[in-house]
């Protein structure tokens, strides 16, 4: 029996709906395997701005700091007109969590399920054998303009010059920042199929040249892992032409943002993809992390019981595995998801003729029920 | 009868093979329509480094400056070991041409041909109706680190600090740089289906916030054009889920690099895609530009008569249209390509069961012959 603490930040948009189902699955696991999970549920994003005036309060932040893991839903952006003069913006919650907890390794597995091939834009023969995981650097690079304002030589601003306005962003990576994420990726490859693809733009960027050098330097520490470098534009092609060639893909923050969303489409719906953002602090049986589906807040379908809860539920499975040290429980949740899909249950984003179309809640409930089945 | 001057830079790898076919098509057009094309053929890239010690010589550069257009093949990178200490690198030719001639608008049309649906990773129903063109900003942004070293506050370098090495690249855009490419995109949309999608990452980057503002400011000048902003990660998804929703897509340099390669796969092969890089100088009947297939130098198939010449031939068609002011001739070349594809001729990258598999030269010759047919 394990005692663990989880802070739940459902966020806004469809975040609360999908998170509720993920939490239900976690509580089912606790019940079934006799663990003791303490759960704190708090506001973040638009909901927090409305109630507390900030994207995430210090108190909520401290609660996260004292937990084994954060289960996160989704947060949206302000509407265009409100953005312009806003000093408080919902994304700040995510940026602050990622930055201050140094969630440097963002894991996004892409494994198209055969029962959802119909929902993918790709032909089945291109999907066969695809089972890859992205390790996206999440704590540095072009991100964090306003948070990093204090770092000398790292501007992110719009400024007036004699010839009008100009805008600047800074892509900065230190050796340590690259090293830790590359090592995390090699560690993962070592327990998977033993292959790493490092993605950069070394024919253009100084930061990519350093990135490549560090990969070359670390690789000999992992003699069982084969590795290659490819350019980001080529990676965008290979993800479509031959996705099965990849095992672990490691890349910097913004490249990872773009490529993971592209790759997500292979599975048929971005609603299917979980993620884990792993930090530096060890927990009792794993590492402190934040877990969230990679889909956004989708305000257009908010409150309609339409969102796909699978990305959130699979994020909860990653939470069990990486932060709580409960790999069997994680596998049970993943198996339950496969089972419910094999039984033909679908939310609208992955539906097809003859499928059993259900809402967020019913799909979540069916997964929780499947977890209980021996 | 038009007198025009074209500088041809075949480059290296498969560049010379595909460029030869494109040139043959141009000379066929000259012959048939009784134009007088003066052609200068010069070295660039690896070939120029081997013969002249530089990626592109000043003399070649001046010849380009005096031409109506540049027909470009492809240039490769140095092998990894040679890169490390190299001061002369083949890509420098491309960067110098783009930068010094201010080729700011890079046009990349994506229109999957029905006769090549079999070669695309996407299901046919996702390809139907797709006919879009990218307008990629090509003269600024994160590119040109070493060329822009003189610009204060725009570092691109690897440097030592107390805690090891760090690398920095600078994403800088001035108002003028954004304005000119956005206007070019609106001009194109106005004569197409009247829809623009501007792609940025305004929830993270200051440069994207300025970009968005400028698009909003220019849009009212084009009341017939509908426009939208989307985030680059969403764009990477929509290009797969619903490519037919796009007409003109305008974006900054590096986003354009990644998204156009992704989109190229829709057509089945990157060997199919032409490009035009338009500058600021007016020619007699158009605008000075550089035309190149978007595929690279593919050294693995160099000299094997395997490369697909269609990207290069369609680039020559764009050259006729945009720099030489010969739209009918351009249309004739495009029709000839469609005809040869409809007749079943294929290079290996787009081949299928029952196709007539031919080499680079034969496909080129067949296109030239088709141009001659009434
Ligand atoms: C919301 C946004 C800032 C975020 C990002 O770009 O990292 C999102 O796209 C993601 O991938 O988690
Ligand atoms: C060769 C490389 C520098 C170039 C670029 O990144 O612009 C290429 O990928 C392209 O798209 O033309």
TrEMBL record, chains A, B:
Gene Ontology cellular-component terms listed: cytosol
Highest taxon above the source species: Bacteria
Residues annotated as site: Important for catalysis: 143, 201
Amino acids binding NAD(+): 296-308
Alphabetical UniProt keywords: Amino-acid biosynthesis, Branched-chain amino acid biosynthesis, Cytoplasm, Leucine biosynthesis, Magnesium, Manganese, Metal-binding, NAD, Oxidoreductase
Co-factor: note: Binds 1 Mg(2+) or Mn(2+) ion per subunit.
E.C. number: 1.1.1.85
Primary subcellular site in the record, as a coarse category: cytoplasm
Catalyzed chemical reaction(s): (2R,3S)-3-isopropylmalate + NAD(+) = 4-methyl-2-oxopentanoate + CO2 + NADH
Job of this protein: Catalyzes the oxidation of 3-carboxy-2-hydroxy-4-methylpentanoate (3-isopropylmalate) to 3-carboxy-4-methyl-2-oxopentanoate. The product decarboxylates to 4-methyl-2 oxopentanoate.
Protein name (record): 3-isopropylmalate dehydrogenase
Organism: Micromonospora siamensis
